[in-house]
Each structure stands twice: as C-alpha cells, then as structure tokens.
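Progress note, sequence design subtask.
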C-alpha cells in the first residue's frame, strides 16, 4: 500500500503522429494478410513518427498537452520522467532534452527503461516520490519511435508495433480526494532474451526482436496470478474495479486475462486496433483517452496493468 501524501492525476495528454500504416499496406511488402493480423492481434492500423521525427518530438507534444490539461506551468514541475525503449540517444536522457524543450527549469529529468511496463514503472516512481514529500508535481511521459528499429522483413514482429506518446501530470492531492492506493512491479530476468532491441551485424540501427509465441505463453501464465495477488494485497476484488487501464499488446491476451479474472471487457478501453502496440506509450495514451471520454468515474477504483520486455509486469491501483 502507498502511504504518505495522497497523489492524484492532475491532467493527461497524448500525441499520435499523422503517418498511418494499415494492415493492407503490410500486405504490399510482406507475405501477410489483414485477416491474419486482425485475428491474431486485434490490430488494424498503426501510426509512425516519419522521417526525422524522434521520440522526444512526440513526447514533447504529449507532455505539453498534459500540462495544459492540468493547468500547470512547466516551471512548476519538480521532475520529468520519460518511459521509452527508443530514446533519441542512450546518453544524455531524452527526458533531459524534453525538460529543456518544455522549459521545465526547476525540474530534474531521467529516462525509465522497463519495456512496455515503462510508463507504469515511471508512474509508480512519481507516485512514491510525491507521497514521500520529495516532489509535488511530476510529468510522466511514455513515448516510442519504433520506425527505425523494426525489421520490415520480419512479419511476426513488425506488424505489431506503432509510434505515439502519452503523458500525465501527477500531483499532491487533498486528504479524501483521488489517490493512488497501491503499486507493484515484478521482473523475470531469466527471460530477458524474449524481447530485445540490440545491435546486429550488418545493420546501422539496433533492431527489435521478439519470440512472439514464448512471450504470449509467458504473459498468459504469469499475468493473471500476478493481478490476482496484487488485488489481494491491495484488499480489492477484481470485480470491484470500476475501470481497467491496460497496456495494449494483443486482444487475445486481454480477453484471456479478463476471462480468468471473471471481469467484463466493457470495463476497459481498447485502442490497439488503431495504434498497434505503442509499448511504453500505450498505457499513457489509453489513460488520456479514458479520462477525456469520461470513462473513469469519480470515486471508482481503477486498475492499471502492464507487461513487457524484461520480462516485466506491473500494476497500480487508483481511487479516482
Ligand atoms: N502474417 C502471416 N503469417 C504469419 C505472420 C504474419 N504477420 N507472422 C507469423 N506468421 C506465421 C508464422 O510464420 C507461422 O507460420 P508456420 O506455422 O508456417 O511456421 C505461423 O504464422 C504461426 O506463428 P506463431 O509465431 O506461432 O504465431 P502466433 O499464433 O504465436 O502469433 C503473435 C504470433 C506475434 C501474434 C503472437 O505470438 C503474439 O501476439 N505474441 C505476443 C506478442 C506481444 O504481445 N508482444 C508484446 C509484449 S509487450
């Protein structure tokens, strides 16, 4: 359980780049079909950043939108955390670049790398830091620019991913107001080779590789008991969760999770069909869409869930 000052979501934002690639576009360059991709993954199209546009450019726009939504000036931020697997540079952090772009002159900045669990991990870091009194306002951004790291001839992987960015301003709340109640992250490093972005001989850029079937199996085996045990420790039944903010990787994984928890898929928002898997951005984009569409009702319990490279798993409980 999270103790200390209560922490709430003050505002959210997203940025999805304009360039679209549909399953039909993939049919022209790969031995694949719209039907195969939709049936196995639920994805119909995804967006890409385009030539010369970087992770920081997408992140900056999402961050700006979240600040505007929160009604907070960049100078009031104590910290900018960027969750990404596709930073502009390994060093310095892309978060530092964004801090500069935003003019968040009083804020620290660093990147979090935890696969698709990155933005959940960044949120948990922000929440515990605000709850302890170290920070008051933290901007958490998830942003990905996969275009340059995909192998466009690997049909089992390149069809899954897309670019985008989402952001949230987390701030100290009032007693009795909305608050994050619990959070947990886990890793199984023995499976670190299942999803990688690494250098390969003969390639200019690092390349994303994934053992899809093994990832699918790992998540289906470990995610349901992880969520069940998280709920138990947080003192909440899955049936009591009013809304689920989920990492968007595969509709089959989510359907199977909900079936095993006995939860209706009506209590979540899926956007995988339009964006594909935007990895560290996915949870934040989904949060923004859930907030803006009024899907999250005041007073209800909200569960955030993510999983990804590492392998990593994460959950957060929010009382809206
Ligand atoms: N179009 C057509 N056929 C394809 C294809 C594509 N885009 N990609 C793979 N295939 C083929 C394979 O070559 C294989 O053919 P074969 O039987 O002739 O060898 C067949 O489909 C089955 O391959 P497999 O890898 O077992 O498919 P799958 O049913 O496991 O589906 C994924 C592949 C990637 C969709 C699935 O494994 C998955 O969703 N994994 C989880 C991925 C994920 O969520 N990653 C992110 C984690 S954060």
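Output:
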């Amino acid at each position: 359980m999270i103790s200390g000052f209560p922490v709430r979501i003050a505002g959210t934002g997203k940025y999805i780049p304009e360039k679209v690639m549909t399953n039909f576009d993939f049919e022209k360059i790969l031995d694949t079909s719209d039907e195969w991709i939709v049936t196995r993954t639920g994805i119909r199209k995804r967006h890409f950043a385009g030539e010369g546009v970087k992770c920081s450019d997408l992140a900056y726009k999402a961050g700006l939108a979240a600040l505007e939504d929160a009604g907070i000036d960049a100078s009031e931020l104590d910290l900018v955390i960027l969750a990404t697997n596709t930073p502009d540079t390994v060093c310095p952090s892309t978060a530092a670049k964004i801090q500069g772009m935003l003019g968040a002159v009083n804020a620290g900045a660093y990147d979090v790398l935890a696969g698709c669990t990155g933005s959940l991990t960044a949120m948990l870091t922000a929440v515990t830091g605000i709850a302890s009194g170290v920070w008051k306002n933290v901007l958490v951004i998830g942003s990905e620019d996969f275009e340059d790291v995909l192998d466009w001839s690997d049909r089992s992987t390149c069809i899954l991913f897309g670019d985008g960015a989402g952001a949230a301003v987390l701030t100290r709340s009032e007693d009795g107001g909305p608050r994050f109640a619990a959070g947990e992250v886990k890793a199984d490093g023995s499976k670190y080779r299942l999803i990688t972005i690494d250098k390969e001989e003969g390639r200019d850029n690092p390349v994303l590789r994934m053992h899809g079937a093994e990832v699918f199996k790992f998540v289906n085996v470990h995610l349901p008991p992880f969520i069940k045990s998280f709920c138990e420790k947080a003192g909440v039944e899955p049936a009591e969760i009013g809304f689920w903010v989920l990492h968007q990787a595969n509709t089959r994984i989510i359907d199977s999770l909900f079936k095993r928890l006995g939860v209706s898929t009506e209590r979540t928002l899926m956007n995988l069909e339009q964006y594909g898997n935007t990895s560290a951005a996915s949870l934040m984009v989904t949060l923004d869409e859930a907030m803006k569409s009024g899907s999250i009702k005041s007073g209800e319990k909200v569960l955030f869930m993510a999983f990804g490279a590492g392998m990593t798993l994460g959950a957060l409980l929010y009382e809206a």
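The radius of gyration is 18 Å. Work on this subtask will continue into the next period as scheduled.
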